[in-house]
From TrEMBL:
Residues 1-28 form the signal peptide. The keyword tRNA-binding does not apply. The keyword Signal applies. Residues 483-745 form the Phytase-like domain. It comes from Micromonospora cremea. Keywords: Signal. This is Esterase-like activity of phytase. Transmembrane segments: none annotated. It holds the Pfam family Phytase-like. Residues 336-418 form the Choice-of-anchor I domain.
């Protein structure tokens, strides 16, 4: 099969998809037609560092935090607090966003001025800017920028440190939360470090957007404390923790010009009538007791933990209609309930709460961040509400697990979960653009050293099956989702058409073998087998390769932090270690921290079992660019070695390596890849080499000739997301199909997205022989 045909077949096969009602794919940028099942599908991911000013180092941190859009839905504006600027993107083609440059706030004020939020009113961009010199002397301004010329046409002193801004539906009012945030290292009298109250108190600024020009706009502050800083009775009666320091965070306005503002650290919500500036209600967000979640950072996804009477401490808030409010309960210093809630604004009571369901979505979709288990878990930070073709949706973003959950709000008090949208790290701003059937998600985490870059992702609503997820977990006997992540290996299940195995690596403290049903779309993890040592005690191997033996049990390729720790491990069908095979001393001595990466095996008609392993990088004693493929004769207990010539890379700090090995007919198929991700990713390929008929001859390594089977990069990019670095698993199943999978690194220094690729039949991928 030609390379071009292989790429065509691969791209056509695409990624396994999940459906909402099972529809067919829609063209990016095309509005869907009512009357059929629909879903949001990601159509583009734009790394905002690509929109940097000329001459700026591409590794310079730059973020996308809060975004707004022009009235025609074609120009997106986002804040970049790290770089002290706002960025502009042309999203006329949703599948091909284009950078339109940036506007520096340093040129409009001080080099340390930070934009905290942005909104659009007609032809003007409203940017709220934090200009504070200290926590005790907070300040800020509102800059009004003409979108077409990018010239500032007005500026207003806000009288404090701003956070968020909202615009009324009739564009009559703007409201700004003046947070005057607390100093987490300050200790108030009688309190603890970071405690409240800390003066000066925050408040709300109302901007009357009337007059011939922005210069005519007027500000009306709404104090949330009394004269002299005393507590207002409404805040005291609501039971807020520190009513003299309200800490307003996020604002939203309904169609009746009623403002809701979260008082995050005080675990409360205040309602304000914008025409009069009168506070109409203040209520506590209350507490929640949640069970069936992971609350211990121990390298194990254990959904038996609980939290009791924890304050919700909502961050973002959005009106569902003129009565109900949705809050994202991120938490701050005392709370965070790992979900979101719906409040009845007429009573201040909880009408619905996500309980453990939001946290369990992260587990089901392989996005559980074990590093945050003991803290605030998924940390739902953003929430947005919008109506698309008569259907009202809620979008809730997880800051720590990098996803946005979508719900149908046909009944505001009974949200119905619809789908999960994968995002890059730290999704912060959720921007519905219903006029174009789009959702924009801006993500703020940026660390070029590990390939984590801030981005704006675009999702299109249409008839069709979204590309994500390609694999999810089923439930265990207790009804909880099976925890999973870091799937860096694949093996076919002997005698089964559609069953695969994978294994977790050192990202988790206990190794588990996962059973995958690949017949379903998306594929489903149906079981987890704990791996144990010879005494039957659960063990944590850095298992980078797995092979299910026709004789029963498994071989694992175990990588070590040091050369001698690399080994082959044979398990029985119950997952108990029955044999450990060390590498030869000279080979182990030549390994650095990148060692065994893949394992496969053959058994001849006489029952002679030969195990093959792939070493990720060259030994210190071998020629540059030549890595080893190992042949282990089980009966003879002997090793011999062959060479594999890797490609080269010219990117500083990059390196090439092997990630997997599997037998396909009379050949060995291997994954060769670079260490790059996102737009920098270049090499994600599958090659084959002849399967040697016997042991290697003594002397220099015999380098086996390699043949390109398929370039997997087009299929990885076809997901329209952040191109994953670690293409690490490969196998040919009993159904004749070839599968590959990416390792999500357990959401550490990675987006956390796992891509299971269905590459086509073995004949299509590897040819007729």
């Amino acid at each position: 099969m030609s390379v071009r045909r292989a790429i065509t077949a691969l791209t056509a096969a695409g990624v396994a998809v999940a459906t909402i009602g099972g529809a067919t794919s829609a063209t990016a940028g095309e509005r869907h037609h009512p009357g059929g099942p629909v879903a949001f599908d990601r159509v583009a991911t734009y790394p905002v560092f690509q929109n940097r000013p000329a001459g700026e180092d591409p590794a310079t941190p730059t973020v996308a935090e809060i975004s707004a859009v022009s009235p025609d839905g074609r120009t997106l504006i986002h804040t970049d607090a790290l770089a002290r600027r706002i960025g502009f993107l042309d999203i006329s083609r949703a599948d091909l966003p284009r950078g339109l440059g940036t506007l520096s706030l340093a040129q409009l004020g001080n080099a340390e001025d930070e934009p905290t939020s942005v909104a659009v009113v007609g032809k003007y961009v409203l940017v709220v800017v934090n200009t504070s010199s200290s926590y005790t002397e907070p300040s800020g301004r509102l800059d009004v920028i003409e979108l077409a010329s990018r010239q500032r046409v007005a500026s207003f002193d806000l009288g404090g440190q701003p956070d968020s801004i909202a615009i009324s539906k009739n564009q009559r009012y703007a409201a700004i939360a003046i947070e005057n945030e607390r100093d987490e290292e300050a200790t108030p009298p009688g309190g603890e470090e970071g405690d409240l109250p800390q003066a000066p108190a925050g408040f709300v600024q109302i901007v009357d957007l009337t007059g011939a020009s922005p210069a005519d706009w007027r500000l009306r502050p709404v104090p949330l404390t009394g004269a002299g800083g005393q507590a207002l009775p409404a805040l005291v009666q609501a039971g807020l923790a520190a009513p003299t320091d309200p800490e307003p965070e996020y604002v939203t306005i309904n169609s009746r010009d009623q403002l809701a503002v979260t008082l995050q650290e005080n675990n409360g919500v205040a309602l304000i009538d914008l025409p009069t500036g009168r506070i109409t209600r203040v209520f506590s967000a209350g507490t929640a007791t949640i069970s069936g979640i992971d609350t211990v950072k121990d390298g194990t996804i254990n959904l038996t933990g609980s939290i009791s009477d924890v304050p919700r401490e909502p961050d973002a808030v959005a009106w569902i209609d003129d009565r109900y409010l949705a809050t994202a309960n991120e938490g701050d210093w005392r709370g965070g309930t790992r979900g979101w809630s719906v409040f009845d604004s007429s009573t201040g009571r909880v009408a619905w709460d996500a309980g453990n369901s939001f946290e369990r979505l992260a587990v089901t979709y392989g996005l559980h961040n074990e590093d945050r288990a003991a803290k605030k878990g998924t940390e739902p930070e953003g929430v947005a509400i919008a109506e698309y073709d008569g259907v009202r949706y809620a979008f809730v973003g997880s800051e720590r697990s990098n996803f946005v959950a979508v719900y149908d709000l046909g009944n505001p008090a009974k949200p119905v979960f619809k789908q999960v949208l994968p995002a890059t790290n730290g999704p912060e701003g959720l921007l519905p653009i219903p006029s174009r059937g789009l959702l924009a998600v801006s993500s703020e985490e940026d660390d070029a050293s590990v390939g984590v870059r801030a981005s704006v992702s675009l999702y299109q609503l249409g008839k069709g099956s979204p590309a994500f997820p390609s694999i999810v977990s089923g439930t265990d006997r207790a009804g909880a989702p099976i925890g999973w992540g870091a799937l860096g290996a694949l093996s076919a299940a002997p005698g089964e058409r559609d069953q695969l195995y994978s294994v977790t690596d050192a990202a988790y403290s206990q190794t588990r073998i996962l059973t995958i049903d690949a017949k379903r779309t998306p594929a489903v993890i149906t079981g987890a087998l704990p791996v144990k040592d010879a005494t039957g005690t659960p063990v944590g191997y850095d298992a980078e390769g797995i092979f299910a033996r026709p004789q029963g049990g498994f071989w694992l390729a175990v990588e070590g932090a040091k050369g001698p720790e690399n080994k082959l491990v044979r398990l029985d069908a119950a997952g108990i270690t029955r044999q450990t095979v060390p590498l030869p001393t000279d080979v182990a001595a030549g390994l650095a921290k990148q060692g065994l990466e893949g394992v496969t095996a053959t058994t001849d008609r006489q029952g002679r079992e030969i195990v093959w392993v792939a070493v990720q990088r060259e030994l210190s004693t071998d020629p540059t660019g030549v890595v080893r493929l190992g042949r282990y004769d089980v009966a003879a207990d002997t090793w011999s070695w062959f060479g594999y010539q890797m490609g080269s890379t010219t990117v500083p700090g990059d390196w090439m390596g092997l990630s997997e090995i599997t037998v396909v007919g009379d050949r060995l198929a291997v994954i060769e890849r670079d260490k790059l991700n996102g737009p920098a990713a270049t090499v994600k390929r599958i090659y084959t080499v002849p399967l040697p008929g016997g042991a290697a001859a003594p002397g220099p390594l015999r380098v086996l000739p390699k043949t390109l089977a398929v370039d997997v990069l087009p299929a990885l990019r076809a997901t329209n997301g952040w191109t994953q670095e670690k293409l690490e698993g490969l196998t040919a199943a009993g159904n004749g199909q070839v599968y590959a999978i990416t390792d999500n690194d357990a959401v550490q220094d990675a987006t956390g997205e796992t891509v299971l690729l269905r590459l086509g039949s073995t004949r299509e991928v590897f040819g007729p022989n």
